[in-house]
Structure formats: structure tokens, C-alpha cells
Amino acid sequence: MTTDGALARLIRSSADPTTAAGAEGCDLCAAPVADEHAHLYDTGQEEVRCVCRPCSVLFAGAGAGDGHFRLVPRRRVRLPKVDTAVLGVPVGLVFFVPRADGAVTAQGPSPAGAMRWEVDAAAWKQLAETCPQLATVEPEVEALLVNTVHGLDHHWIVPIDDCYRMVAVVRREWRGLSGGGRVWPAVEQFFEDLTERS
After folding, report:
1. In Å, what is the CA distance from 80 to each residue of 128, 153, 173?
2. Which terminal CB of the chain, N or C, has fewer other CB atoms within 10 Å?
């Protein structure tokens, strides 16, 4: 994933509270976008792009954008506890993204952005057999988001832009080598603010 485009703007605006509200524009037509706006996932650049309402409609159908751009869905589903140990990622704050080619990546936030690991696709399939909702995760644009830090037990299917917002929170609040006293309360607040939607 690159640091250009909407993700970079999201991280910058989260890190700089003086950024003017409403200053964002559509990455396709440059029209202003509202605070709550749609996102496209650019499969070629592996990044999220902001789009205005009229442009988002162009990509709403299956096959729109010839697979290069995919509209990021809005659904969020809170899951019961999912035992992700089978995936072999010893990190308590992580998101798992299935890819169109069958691969699965795990990404965890750090002060520098998201760290990325490859996950065994067979292990993901095995996990999906124990939690059938995982089989519904749309490749590239949705993720399994997990937070088990400090005894928490959050497991969500979320749009990929929620994952990038969480990465931005960690990057904005991290202090020193261990994160400092602000990062984990901010992460907990992020998860408390998640609401289910279809």
C-alpha cells in the first residue's frame, strides 16, 4: 500500500487537528466531498480514494470500474469471539484482508503506519469454517478487525477505510517507544464508537 491519496490525507488530517474541515475533494472529479463520503479502493495502487456521491454511483454495480476501482462497502458486523490464533499473527491489534487472488494479509498499526504480513490462505479458510460470516468478507474492501489488547475482545467485519482510520489513530496518538499513555485509550474509544450497520 502506498502513502499517497486518501490514506495519506486521512493520516495527515488525524495528526493535524488544525486541518480545515471540508477541505477534501473527490479524487476522480475534484468536486468537494462532505465529511461523511464514500471511498473507492484502487486495486492497482492498493490505496483508498475519496469520492463524491455522483462518482460513487458510477462504481456501485458489480463489475463497474473494470475491477480497477471498487466501491468500499459501508457494512459493519460485530462478531462473537473469533479465535485468530490459527492465523499465526501474534498481535492483539490487527486487521485481516482477503485478496481477490485468494491471498490474505494481516496488517497491524505502528507509529509509522501499517505493518503487513502474509497469512496462510488455508488457515483463513479453516477459520472461515468456524465463523461462516468470514466467508462473506469482500476481498480487498472489507476486513476482519481484531482488538484483544489489554484483555479486550473486539472482532468486527468492517470496511477497509475503518481499518485505515484506526491506523491513523495509532499514528496520531503514539508517543515514545511503548506508545505512551494516550494511544490505548484512543484505540479503545475508536472501538467503542464502532456501530453495526448494513
Report:
1. 13, 9, 28
2. C
Measured at the CA of 153, the angle between CA 148 and CA 155, to 5 degrees, comes to 95
- From CA 49, how far away is CA 72, in angstroms rounded? 10
* pLDDT (mean) for 52-80: 87
Local structure of residue 32 (DSSP, 8 states): B
Reported as a pLDDT band with limits 50, 70 and 90, residue 52 is very high
User: ∠ at Cα 55 (51, 60), nearest 5°?
Assistant: 100
Grid coordinates in use for 27? 479524487
Q: What is the pLDDT of residues 72-94, one digit of tens each?
A: 999 999 999 999 999 998 889 99
Computed on alpha carbons and rounded to an integer, the radius of gyration of the chain in Å comes to 17
Alpha-carbon gap, residue 61 to 10, rounded angstroms: 26
Q: What is the pTM of this model?
A: 0.83
Q: Is 133 exposed, middle or buried (0-12, 13-18, 19+ CB in 10 A)?
A: middle
